[in-house]
Write a structure and sequence with these properties.
The chain is α/β, with parallel strands linked by helices. The protein has two domains: 5-157 and 342-354, NAD(P)-binding Rossmann-like Domain (Rossmann fold), CATH 3.40.50.720; 159-335, Dihydrodipicolinate Reductase, domain 2. The protein contains twelve helices and 14 strands. It is globular. It starts with a strand and ends in a 7-residue tail after the last helix. InterPro entries: ASADH-related, Asp_semi-ald_DH_pep-lack, NAD(P)-bd_dom_sf, Semialdehyde_DH_NAD-bd, Semialdhyde_DH_dimer_dom.
Length: 361
């Protein structure tokens, strides 16, 4: 127990905060010792602060029920209790940027689920299997912040997880144009059907800000570090529509791709099944053994059958076939609150620890 790193969860009472706490129960490297939230929750036990708003399928872990929730704005007090923090705070973008940097300046690494720092040039935005090398930018960020161990790292938007890894696996064939339509679960908005009943049997063809993120964030993940900042890749060109659908967990994407070097279908499937990265090589605790699975059945992937593949950390792909306008089309599926949110951030933290960026104080 004493060998595990002490972890704080900022914004621990919300849905993503709850997911962090669920995923970290019995984690071999990390132990949740501190939960911070808004001033209205501060001073209550975690169980009291959440009340009837526990949204996970599994029970609240016993180890956190009686933890006294701290005020997230009392940065020095929270930071002194932990080795690093996960951030899932619900504030304005500018408030999030400031408070995450404040924690970093208090020499506390921050691994964030939020979007506020995704375009800060010296903040790595990582899918650990795709761009682990972006961790190298942390040295430049620390110099800017004046820190020795504090920094901010983020994970990308949940909507891109169902197709960006797929395109990465195919990079040698040089994808140049991509059309993606994502069908996104309501948990992506922090909702369940109980608190969003108007989504039952409904589709909403708009999710604020989502399409721009879905088109631009993959380019940053595929970018390179130049002069201490991450410079996004120039291509492929991606255009996207994002639609909210009556599903609790699981973002599905229907994707069309044009390549400069059109491969055979069998080559594409082989690349998907063989694709892995540092998390698999290092056998990190949350890493899926099989990052991407390809399903041969025409009616797969399905949310009901496939969203929990590799404990929600794997990507499921199916219906790959030639297209009459583009070269190929396929359907991808990822778990938006596990791989796409808290689980992806936990895997980032595991990689950061394995590479020496996170350790005990």
């Amino acid at each position: 127990m004493s060998e595990r790193l002490k972890v704080g969860v900022l914004g621990g009472t919300g849905m993503v905060g709850q997911r962090f706490i669920s995923l970290l129960e019995n984690h071999p490297w990390f132990e949740v010792t501190t939960i911070a939230a808004s001033p209205r929750s501060a001073g209550k036990t975690y169980e009291e602060a959440v009340g009837g708003r526990w949204k996970m399928d599994t029970p609240m872990p016993e180890a956190v029920k009686n933890l006294k929730v701290m005020n997230v704005n009392e940065v020095e007090a929270v930071a002194s209790q932990v080795d690093f923090v996960f951030s899932a705070v619900d504030m304005t973008k500018e408030e999030i940027k400031k408070i995450e940097e404040d924690y970093a300046k208090a020499e506390t690494p921050v691994v964030s689920n939020n979007s506020a720092h995704r375009w800060t040039p010296d903040v790595p935005m990582m899918v650990p299997e795709i761009n682990p090398g972006h961790m190298d930018v942390i040295a430049f960020q620390r110099k800017r912040l004046g820190t020795t161990r504090g920094f901010v790292a983020v994970k990308p938007n949940c909507s891109i997880q169902s197709y960006a890894p797929v395109l990465t696996a195919w990079m040698e064939f040089e994808p140049e144009e991509v059309i993606a339509t994502t069908y996104q679960a309501i948990s992506g908005a922090g909702k369940t059907f109980q608190d969003w009943p108007e989504m039952v049997g409904n589709i909403i063809p708009y999710i604020g800000g989502e399409e721009e993120k879905s088109e631009k964030e993959p380019l940053r993940i595929w970018g390179k570090i130049e002069n201490g900042v991450i410079v996004p890749a120039a291509g492929p060109v991606i255009t996207c529509q994002c639609i909210r659908v009556p599903v609790l967990n699981g973002h599905t994407a229907a994707v069309f791709v044009r390549f400069k070097k059109k491969p055979a279908k069998e080559q594409l499937i082989e690349k998907l099944r063989a694709f892995s990265g540092e998390p698999q090589r290092l056998n990190l605790p949350s890493a899926p053994k099989q990052f991407i699975q390809y399903l041969e059945d025409d009616n797969r992937p399905q949310v009901a059958l496939d969203v929990d593949f590799e404990n929600g950390m794997g990507i499921s792909v199916g219906r790959l076939r030639e297209d009459t306008v583009y070269d190929y089309k396929f359907v991808g599926l990822s778990h938006n609150t596990v791989r796409g949110a808290a689980g992806g951030a936990v895997l980032c933290a595991e990689l950061l620890k394995a590479q020496g960026y996170i350790g005990s104080r």
